[in-house]
Amino acid sequence: MADPSLEVVKQAGQNVLRLSGHWTLAHLPSVAVLPSIPVGPLMVDGSDLTGLDPSGAHRLIAMLRQSGIRMENVQTRAMPSKAAQVWALVADRVRLTEGAESARPQGLLYQIGLGTAESWQHFMGVTNFIGRVVTEWLGLFRRPGAFRLKEFTAQMEGVFVYAIPIVFAMIFLLGVVFAYLLGVQAQKFGANIFVVDGVAAAILREISPVIVAILIAGRSGAAMTAQLGTMKVNEEIDALSVLGLSPYVVLVLPRILALLLAMPLLVFVGDVAGLLGGMLVANAQLGIEYSQFWDRLDSVLKMKTLLIGLGKAPVFAVFIGLIACRMGLTVSRDARSVGVNTTSTVVQSIVAVIVLNALFAVAFSDIGI
Asked: Which of 99, 156, 246, 292 keeps 20 to 30 A from 83, CA to CA?
């Protein structure tokens, strides 16, 4: 089969693109760059064409569009019947795209209106999702048997049990780093023992809850979105609805409740890990005995410091769960959308955690705790 080739000629004052050879997927790598063609009407001559498939038609049309030629200005002649059908199918789709692009206004006012409409639509989607989750959750009080305990247990295993090692390791190391940095400064003033105060307040109140939330957002939140998104692509969620089961009860609530229960437990694990890391550094760098460390911790650590950190965890968990599940259920029916929404879940969740933590800091400062 002859390799595909093309030639631009002038016939009767009209630009003619003469095609020859086999324009199919297997032969496309040998296609040369399209010669320069003046923008305007173009006749495509297929009299010497021996084969054309959709890939070849797409490649040729893409080359024409890159040269600034619109499909509305392109006509064909002398094409084999099968090649003409393939060309017509691909060209019609491209014309629809060009029509939509040309019909779309590009003014500033239009862009502002479009952005406002999309923001409002997004807000309403979020509101509807939260309302549906709350409604289904309240409905469980009337029919507790509908709750999927097996699904909840499986999610707890994934969110809590498998996350313990990474949470412990990360916050242990952060406790080491934080205690080391405080120790360097404390040694200058002979205030070694006050490292215990700083490590305890920072780990329990800020570092542990925020780092745990970020880890869970990147680990469990992304996994939940990917799971639900894949189920939607495979039409498993539609199958649940056909069986008369609510996807919110079967899939969403167990995941959110698992996060709600697991997050405070993981924050407590992080608290212990961070304090252990700080204690080891205090002993090795500053000569503070382990008994001194715990005695000082017992005297300066207030219960409210521990409760503030643990109290943030459920709030972070709810936001991460809502974002992850909503993004999973709004996936389009293609693999690319699953990846895009999974990435969006991680970004939105981390931003939400940081914003919420800042709001907590301001609120606690205003009320004096």
From this structure: 99
Cβ-based burial of 365 (10 A; exposed 0-12, middle 13-18, buried ≥19): exposed
pLDDT tens profile 327-368: 998 888 778 888 899 999 999 999 999 999 999 999 988 887
The DSSP H or E segment spanning 9 is strand 5-11
Which pTM does this prediction carry? 0.70
Handedness of CA 196, 197, 203, 207 (dihedral sign): negative
User: Per DSSP, what are the bridge partners of residue 45?
Assistant: 18, 77
As a whole number of angstroms, the distance between CA 300 and CA 201 comes to: 9
Q: How confident is the model at residue 99 (pLDDT cuts 50, 70, 90)?
A: low
CB neighbourhood size of 137 (10 A):
16
Q: Which amino acid is at 134?
A: V
The first and second tokens of residue 188, run together, are 């200058």
The percent helix, strand, coil of the chain (3-state, each to 5) is 75, 10, 15
* 47 token code pair: 């009299």
Q: Which of 360, 352, 342, 367 is nearest to 317 (CA)?
A: 352
Q: Which residues pair with 332 in a beta bridge?
A: none
Please, are residues 240 and 247 in contact by the beta-carbon 8 Å criterion? yes
More confident site: 220 or 35: 220
* pLDDT at site 325: 93
- Please say whether the beta carbons of 29 and 39 come within 8 A: no
Assess contact for 87 and 79: CB atoms under 8 A.
yes
- Can you list the domains of the chain with their CATH numbers? 5-103 (3.30.750.24), 147-367 (no CATH)
pLDDT surpasses 60 at 102: no
321 within 8 A of 255, measured Cβ to Cβ: yes
**Measuring CA to CA, which residue among 323, 312, 217, 315 is closest to residue 268?**
312
- For the chain, the first-to-last Cα distance in angstroms comes to 81
